[in-house]
Write a structure and sequence with these properties.
The chain is α/β, with parallel strands linked by helices. The strands form six sheets. The protein has a six-stranded parallel sheet, sandwiched between helices. A six-stranded parallel sheet has the order 19-18-20-21-23-22, sandwiched between helices.
Length: 653
């Protein structure tokens, strides 16, 4: 027996008060204080101490230490008392179920039953895509999603990075106008969803976050992988629930159906062909579920549960308070003296009505309203007074030019934003009038109210049909090639995704009209998650049977920022995505801003920030095909081939 063992034996002999689980105790100091090195020890009485006479001051100090110890012990006991009743109730319930002949696995299957019922109910209401980031706490939801994928009921995407998963769901929501569900475990995993949710909130893209959590009593206790993740989106969320075990264990199917029907207005009203005449608050939604251990069990047979979910949904009458808001703010404006600006999420029917009465239309490239020719060179047109226009009608959120914002700030210009109540809308200086509905009063002359404001002829692009040769590679050449070779005939129509970089502005200035669907991060205009979002658009279009290519035009910085978006599991097919990397060695967009006048060395260091990323090697590392365009003819051929992969275009800035 060693010295430590003899000391412990002597201590136990004098005071059998220390019970240690899982680890040994040791003699802590020369007074004989026994200090536990394990976190799961408890004291049953006083610890043995060497008796000796103490001076009065020493005894007073000891009394203070004892008082502090008693206070801490009382605090621990009080905290434990708050947790024990629920644990005792759960244990008693499990014992009863075992005595009744049900296994422990069946006893804890409420989490699995609720997870499966929730996903089934969401599928019944129109959700088609689920994105999973693996984790322990979310295993019931993840396994349920895998089972439903195997049954052919949904499309499943797995991403190890929660940030990429959320942006993938954002792209799916852009393409389908239905929310994709994102499943994550607890802790920092939930925080990684926030950037994509912020973009979804501003761009009004539907997205559903299913976040797994630990029980509420563990919050604020220092428990592992536990934080205050419920309501993490704050006011950005259009729907927010924090579910405890007692919420879903009592009636898992009923709760799942109620939640799915609450999501329904957001999902159904965003389907193609269904307008916003009532109301539809698009954007991110969060359902936070507090799963208790064991975290999964034997699943209910899917077909039987699906039939039960369908019956319960038929009995449920989906309601949302916003659907009952019938009062609408309407306005009628004269066509003469009016200009209409269409930004991200524009009402295409309003744009068509404006064109019918001759109102000049400014449609940003990502507005979805540039099927027709609109005002060409609108920046200069606004700088020169817009032919005396005194009224600006705005639909959607314009963000691609300072001229639109500055024109709206003029004191002699009336600004009317057409947007549903509750949505953030365009309002420089907070002076815009918001209306739900707007109609135009035609001018007496008819036709174009400003003479030469808007052209009438529809078109697919403004570029030449024949490829350009013998020219140096430019940004304009890239845009020309992309639009020239993008198919517009359904069902094989292509799509274009423009990163928030220099290229989106080049396209906005160069393309007069486009029948090709154009997507982009124009809510908050960040560069994060661009590859993932474009992949989501490509995956969603393929799942819908579009059978076409999506082309992503992206700068080298945005490419480097989301290079992890290139990664996907081996069991998932690569997306029909052609990534065209315009490598101009850093943030060239800043060259046109006032910051470009700063000291060149400082500007290069902290603003332009060129990166040493090698696109060829990066493509090889992630298993993507790679090509580099050497000249305009080479670029034209690579884009025309329409092969998924990465095409690098090096441009001298």
């Amino acid at each position: 027996m060693g010295v430590d063992d003899r000391d412990r034996a002597a201590a136990r002999h004098r005071c059998g008060a220390l019970v240690v689980r899982g680890s040994s105790a040791r003699i802590g100091d020369r007074r004989g204080l026994i200090v536990c090195t394990a976190g799961s020890a408890r004291w049953c009485g006083l610890v043995a101490r060497r008796r000796r006479r103490r001076a009065p001051d020493d005894r007073a100090s000891q009394r203070e230490r004892d008082a502090r110890h008693d206070g801490r012990r009382a605090h621990r006991l009080a905290r434990a008392a708050a947790v024990r009743p629920r644990r005792r109730e759960r244990s008693a319930e499990r014992r009863r179920q075992i005595l009744e002949g049900r296994s422990v696995t069946a006893a804890v299957a409420a989490s699995s039953e609720f997870a499966t019922a929730l996903l089934l109910a969401l599928v019944e209401r129109g959700v088609e895509h689920v994105v999973v980031s693996p984790g322990s706490r979310s295993q019931a939801l993840a396994l349920a999603a895998a089972e439903l994928e195997a049954a052919g009921l949904l499309h499943l995407h797995v991403r190890i990075d929660e940030r990429d998963a959320a942006f993938l769901a954002l792209g799916i929501g852009m393409a389908t106008r239905r929310p994709a569900a994102v499943i994550t475990t607890s802790g920092s995993a939930v925080g990684n969803l926030v950037p994509a949710a912020m973009e979804a909130a501003r761009a009004q893209v539907p997205m559903l976050l299913l976040t797994a959590d630990r029980p509420a009593e563990l919050r604020g206790t220092g428990a592992n992988q536990t934080t205050r993740q419920a309501n993490i989106l704050g006011d950005l969320a259009t729907l927010d629930h924090d579910l405890a075990e007692e919420d879903y264990a009592r009636d898992p199917v009923g709760l799942a159906v109620r939640l799915a029907c609450e999501v329904l207005p957001f999902a159904e009203l965003n389907r193609p062909g269904i307008d916003d005449e009532h109301v539809s608050l698009r954007g991110p939604m969060q359902v936070n579920v507090q799963f208790v251990e064991p975290l999964s069990g034997r699943h209910t047979e899917t077909s039987a549960l699906q039939a039960l979910v369908r019956r319960r949904i038929d009995d449920e009458r989906p309601q949302h308070p916003l659907l009952n808001a019938t009062r609408k703010e309407a306005a009628t404006v004269p066509a003469r003296g009016t200009v209409l600006v269409a930004g991200l999420g524009a009402d295409v029917d309003l744009v068509r009505a404006a064109r019918d009465v001759g109102v000049p239309v400014i449609a940003e490239i990502t507005s979805g309203a540039r099927q027709w020719h609109t005002v060409k060179g609108y920046r200069e047109w606004l700088d020169h007074g817009a032919d005396g226009a005194c009224r600006m009608i705005v639909t959607g959120l314009p963000s691609l030019s300072r001229q639109v914002w500055h024109f709206a700030e003029r004191a002699d210009v009336q600004v009317i934003a057409v947007a549903p109540a509750g949505r953030e809308h365009f309002s420089p200086g907070h002076r815009a009038r918001r209306v739900d509905l707007l109609r135009f009063e035609a001018t007496a002359q008819g036709g174009d109210a400003h003479g030469d404001g808007a052209a009438d002829a529809p078109g697919a692009s403004v570029v030449a049909d024949e490829p350009l040769t013998g020219e140096a590679l430019t940004r304009e050449a890239v845009i020309d090639a992309v639009w020239r070779h993008s198919r517009i005939d359904a069902p094989s129509a292509d799509a274009i995704y423009l990163a928030s970089s220099h290229m989106v502005r080049v396209a906005d200035e160069r393309v007069e009209a486009s029948a090709v669907p154009v997507f982009g991060h124009r809510g908050l205009a960040g560069i994060d998650g661009t590859i993932s979002a474009a992949s989501g658009v490509a995956d969603a279009r393929r799942a819908a049977g579009a059978g076409a290519l999506t082309r992503l035009v992206i700068g080298d910085l945005a490419f480097a920022h989301d290079v992890g978006g290139l990664l996907r599991p081996e069991c998932e097919a690569a997306p029909p995505l052609q990534i065209i990397v315009v490598n101009d060695h850093g943030g060239s967009i800043f060259a046109g801003l006032e910051v470009a006048t700063a000291d060149p060395a400082l500007y290069e260091r902290v603003v332009r920030t060129p990166q040493p990323l090698r696109v060829r090697e990066t493509a090889a590392a992630y298993g993507w095909a790679y090509h580099q365009a050497r000249d305009v003819a080479d670029l034209d051929g690579l884009v025309a081939a329409g092969e998924p992969g990465i095409v690098e275009v090096v441009i001298d800035a």
